[in-house]
Amino acid sequence: MIQTDTEDSALFYPLVRSILEYCSVVWSPYTRRNIKKIEGVQRRATKYILKTEDDYDTRLRKLN
User: Fold this and answer.
1) Could you tell me the pTM of the whole model?
2) φ and ψ at 38, to 5 degrees?
């Protein structure tokens, strides 16, 4: 089954991005280490949802 970009975005926003945005406000990651941890979660989630080996910036563009 091949997903469209719309379906990918439909998964990404409610499942990943909204949670990370909420947590980042509460957690307030101001150190480079903590920011990298949040980015790592988002990188893995975009790779899993899109099922592609594109680079991170390309995956973000596809989902935005």
Assistant:
1) 0.58
2) -65, -45
